Amino acid sequence: MSDANDEKTNENIxxxxxxxxxPEKVWRALTIPELAANWLGEPGDGETSPxxxxxxxxxxxxxxxxxRDRNTDAPDTLVTFEIxxxxxxxTHFRLTHSASTLPRMAANTNGVLMARAx
Length: 118
Fold this sequence. Notes:
- This protein is mainly β.
- It has a single domain, classed as 2-Layer Sandwich (Alpha-D-Glucose-1,6-Bisphosphate, Chain A, domain 4), CATH 3.30.530.20.
- It contains two helices and six strands, in the order E-E-H-H-E-E-E-E.
- A six-stranded antiparallel sheet has the order 1-2-6-5-4-3.
- Helix 1 crosses helix 2.
- The longest helix has 9 residues.
- It is globular.
- The protein starts with a strand and ends in a 17-residue tail after the last strand.
């Protein structure tokens, strides 16, 4: 990784990097569960380790995960990964961890299920 730019605001933690891999490779690493586990860790149960699940995605551009840790009193937060092409076949990578919390959905909600990346 190179060209790091880290920023913390009252609401968000923002990390920006230029990665030496192609956007397609980075996209696969963020959205294929087995590969995402290499970056994010194995998704836990929220009790013994943080749990995360994909909540939405814009192919080859943005993916968002809900993040929970039941070992703290903190509610679920949102982690957004944004990628775009950079010169030389590299990838501009931006991670935003929002301090804003996600609303909890009722277990019996009849809403549309979110699509999962393959």
